[in-house]
């Protein structure tokens, strides 16, 4: 009788354990899907705005050959001009920030080394994501590695990169804002398709 009563209890415990394991697996899969979705959205948004074709050459940036490439906008033109130029020259502005940051880090070798190590760690993490999934069997989830990488990145930014980052943002940001403010976008040539002819934006669209 005692053994007969214990068997259903053991079966119930085994069933409960399997249900808990299944629920844990479902939760892990849900967390992985969320992480993949967020990363996918970030990468997709970055690719839409930052790509090789969005790089403007020096002649377009400086308005070489134009009669009045730079001028003072009227008050109604300020906001549309800034919005347009910041979107149109976004890759060039990012490149300028990168160059200024690199030049700043050259004078701080230890900070540069930490940045390179952090960037290499993120690159290795992205490349080796499939291999890290095997560690899920040992109780490590992908989000644990993401949190650890974010914490390490935060430490590097706070203690090693913050002064250089503030300097680079100040210098490049000031130059970019001045350029976006004075650059006349009515003379900028848009090329939505390389096979199409050049189209100049009318002035009434930017007022």
UniProtKB/TrEMBL annotation:
GO terms for cellular component: Golgi apparatus; membrane. InterPro entries: Prenylated_rab_accept_PRA1. Its main location: membrane. Pfam families: PRA1. The chain crosses the membrane at residues 93-125, 145-166. It is a multi-pass membrane protein. It is found in: Membrane. Keywords: Membrane, Transmembrane, Transmembrane helix. Belongs to the PRA1 family. This is PRA1 family protein. It comes from Aphanomyces invadans. The lineage of its organism: Eukaryota, Sar, Stramenopiles, Oomycota, Saprolegniomycetes.
